[in-house]
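User: Reviewer 2 asked us to show a designed sequence for the structure in our supplementary figure. I'm pasting the structure tokens here. Could you produce the per-position amino acids so we can include them in the response letter?
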């Protein structure tokens, strides 16, 4: 809700500045507002995409091929660990003075930004669910849980870093928020938001 009010406030400021520019016949004020680095950073931050889900992993020494050796292992030597943890992630762009450019032409406002990426990733360890199955000859091994949790964090984070669906959703959200802010300046211009492909993460395999 706070983000919504911030966006509304930016739009109102933009409208006021645009009106003043037209009222006093000056385009310099409008150009300064359009290319203001602090405002672009704030808009980019407000446009971040929040994602929630569950990360899970299963590690087992069973082949589940129905063989007698696998059935024997299941009875005496099975070591299966399953872990599921909710996560919260945020996608967006990291903007500084060197990472973006705003250009005004007679027909367009062009904003060049770095590609969206995974900005933060947090596992909700207090809501973790686990299960384990041990053969008769094996005892409880707490280190196994630690190793599985570490592997879960590494693999799930890597998958989210390369998730092209969330990255495209982040781009769409940034474009919509930018369009809301720059609407007062777009009477005779179109807005184009471009993302640097060189900063994009590798595709999901």
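Assistant: Here is a per-position design you can include in the supplement:
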């Amino acid at each position: 809700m706070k983000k919504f009010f911030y966006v509304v406030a930016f739009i109102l400021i933009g409208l006021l500045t645009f009106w003043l520019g037209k009222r006093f016949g000056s385009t310099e004020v409008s150009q300064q507002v359009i290319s203001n680095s602090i405002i672009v950073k704030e808009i980019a931050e407000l446009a971040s995409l929040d994602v929630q889900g569950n990360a899970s992993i299963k590690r087992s020494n069973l082949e589940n091929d129905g063989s007698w050796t696998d059935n024997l292992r299941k009875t005496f030597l099975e070591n299966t660990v399953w872990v599921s943890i909710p996560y919260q992630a945020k996608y967006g762009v990291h903007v500084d003075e060197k990472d973006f450019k705003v250009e005004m032409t007679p027909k367009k406002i062009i904003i060049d930004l770095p590609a969206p990426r995974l900005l933060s990733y947090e596992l909700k360890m207090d809501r973790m669910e686990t299960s384990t199955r041990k053969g008769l000859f094996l005892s409880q091994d707490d280190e196994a849980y630690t190793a599985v949790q570490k592997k879960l964090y590494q693999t799930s984070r890597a998958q989210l870093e390369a998730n092209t669906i969330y990255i495209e959703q982040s781009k769409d959200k940034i474009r919509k928020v930018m369009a809301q802010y720059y609407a007062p300046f777009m009477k005779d211009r179109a807005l184009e938001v471009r993302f640097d492909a060189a900063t994009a993460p590798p595709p999901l395999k």
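For the response letter, you might also mention the following. The chain is about 40% helix and 30% strand. Residues 22-27 have pLDDT under 50 and may be disordered.
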